[in-house]
Amino acid sequence: MLLEGGCGPQLANEWGRFGAGEQNGAVLPSCEVLTVGRPGSGTPGADEPSTNRPVARAARLLRRGGLVAFPTETVYGLGANAFDDDAVGRIFEAKQRPASDPLIVHLAGVEDVDEVVAEWSAAAVLLAGAFWPGPLSLVVPRHERVPSRVTAGGPAVAVRVPAHPVARDLIRAAGVPVAAPSANRFGRISPTTADHVVEELGDRIELVLDAGPTPLGVESTVVDLTGTVPVLRRPGGVTLEDLRSVVPAIEVAHRSVLAPGQAATAPGELLAHYSPATPVVLVEAGDEVLEQLVAAAVSVGIAARRLPLSSDASAAARELYAAMRAADRPGIDLLLAPTVDPEGLGRAVNDRLYRAAHGRVVTDAAPGTVARLGAIAACAPPRES
Ligand code: TXA
Ligand code: MG
User: Fold this and answer.
1) Are residues 195 and 290 in the same domain?
2) The pLDDT of residue 23
3) Which atom of ligand 1 is nearest to the CA of 236?
4) Among all ligands shown, which has an atom nearest to the Cα of 270?
5) How far apart are the CA of 190 and the centre of ligand 2, in A?
6) Residue 125: phi, psi to the nearest 5?
7) How many domains are there within the chain?
C-alpha cells in the first residue's frame, strides 16, 4: 500500500472539510471534499466565470496544475489540464496507470473540438450532434497541441462533452480542456460517489467536488472514428441501438479476452479491469442456476455470495460499482454475478461484469462447475489491505 503522495499543495481550506483515510492502521492525509449543488439558476453562461465557489476553486486548481476529481453523468473523473504535460503525468502517477493507456479529453462544448482535434469527420459531426453533451467519447485524429502523454503517444485522441452540469461548469470555468480518466486506481472499480474517490485516491489528489451519486453509473461509450468504419470500442451510456440509429455502419469490437500485459487497443478492453479484490465469476444461466451455485459452493465451505443487482439494465448500471464495492469485503471468497438483458445499457453492464470476472463465465451448476469455483476461490491473491 502506498503511503506517499499526501494532499499535494495545501491551499486555503475556505469552504470544505478535510477527511482522513485510514489504511494499515495509519491515518493518512486526505483530500479536500467540497459539496456542490447542481448548478441551476446562477450558472453562468458560456463566457462567464463560474459563480459557484467550489467549482471556481476547483477550476483555479486545474489551471495551476492540480488534480481535481469531479462528477460526470457516468462516473467520477480525475481531472487535470489536458494541455499541462506535468499535470497529466500526475494523473498516471496517482492512478498507477500504465503510460500506454490514453486519456479522454473533456470539453465544455462541441465548439471547442478544434482545440484538440485535427480532423472532424462527417460521422463525428453526426454522432456529436446527436449525443453531446452526453456519455459518448469519440476517438479522432489528435491536434499536435495535445501532449502526446494524453494519447499514450498515439495519433488519436478521445474527446467528449459531458452532460453533468457540474462537469460542464468546471471545464468552462477552468478555460482549458480537461483530461480525465475514471477516478479510481488502475484496474479497480470505477467511482460513482465522492466517497469512492476518497477511498481510491484521497491521499493523492487535491480536491473532490461532491455532487452525490452519478446518474448513469457506467462509463461513456467509446467509438473509434479513425478507421474506414466506425467501431464501438467500449459499450457505455449511449446504447449501440441509439448509435446505429444515427450511423448504421458502426461495428462492434469483439469482446476481447486479453490478459494484463497483452496489447489492448483500449485499456477498458483489458480482461482484468473494473475489478474487486474478491474473485468474481459471471453466471450466464439465469437466477435459478446462480442460487444453486451459491448454495452448492457454501455447502463445500466456499463463502460465495450473489452480487446483488437489479434485473433492469438502467438500475443495474446505476448500482453496479457501488454493489461491487459493498460486496468486496474480507470473509467473502467468491462473488457470483448475474448477467442482465443485453439490450440497451445491459450491454455495458454485462461488459463490466465480464471484465470484473476476468472473463470467467459459468453456464451450469454441475459438480465440475462447483469444483471450478472452489479452485478460483482458492487461487485468489491475498487482499491488499
Ligand atoms: O465516462 C467516462 O468515459 C469516464 C468519465 C470520467 O468521463 N472516463 C473514463 O476514462 O472512463 P477511462 O480512462 O477510465 O477510460 C477511457 C477509455 C479507455 O478504455 C481508453 O482506452 C479509451 O477510453 N481511450 C482513451 N483515449 C483513447 C484513444 N486515444 N484511443 C483509443 N481509446 C482511447
Ligand atoms: Mg476507468
Assistant:
1) no
2) 44
3) 1
4) 1
5) 6
6) -60, -45
7) 2
Structural domain contains residue 251: no
Handedness of CA 306, 309, 310, 313 (dihedral sign): negative
Nearest to 142 by CA among 174, 196, 105: 105
In short, whether 333's Cβ falls inside 6 Å of ligand 1 is no
- Residues 186, 324: one domain? no
The ligand with the least distance to the CA atom of 190 is: 2
296 with 180, same domain? no
Residue (of 164, 138, 155) closest to 234 by Cα position: 138
Q: Report mean pLDDT in 10-residue bins for the chain, 385 residues.
A: 27 32 53 80 46 92 97 98 98 96 98 98 98 98 98 98 97 98 96 97 95 98 97 97 97 66 51 83 96 96 96 97 95 96 96 94 96 91 61
What atom in ligand 1 is closest to the CA of residue 268?
Answer: 19
Ligand 1 midpoint to CA 181 (Å): 6
- Could you say which ligand is closest to the alpha carbon of residue 267? 1
Angle between helices 346-356 and 313-327 (to 10 degrees): 20
- Could you tell me if the CB of 351 is within 6 A of ligand 1? no
Same-domain check for residues 193 and 114: yes
Q: Is 102 in the pocket of ligand 1 (CB under 6 A)?
A: yes
- Angstrom distance (rounded) from CA 265 to CA 279: 25
Q: What's 319's domain CATH number?
A: 3.40.50.11030
Give residue 38's pLDDT. Answer: 57
How far, in Å, is the centroid of ligand 2 from the Cα of 1? 20
198 & 347 share domain: no
From residue 176, give the alpha-carbon distance in Å to each of 62, 113, 164, 359, 367.
Answer: 9, 12, 17, 38, 57
Domain hosting 69: range is 17-210
Residue ending a domain, among 160, 181, 210, is 210
CA of 267 from ligand 1 middle (Å) equals 8
Answer with the one of 210, 238, 253 that is the final residue of a domain.
210
State the cell numbers at 89.
Answer: 503525468
Q: What is residue 45's predicted lDDT score, i.e. its pLDDT?
A: 46
Does the CB atom of residue 79 touch ligand 1 within 6 A? Answer: no
Residues 75 and 174 occupy one common structural domain: yes
SS3 31: strand
Neighbours of ion ligand 2 (CB under 5 A): 182
The whole-model pTM stands at 0.88
CATH code: domain of residue 150: 3.90.870.10
Ligand nearest to the CA of 76: 1
- The answer to whether residue 254 sits within a structural domain is no
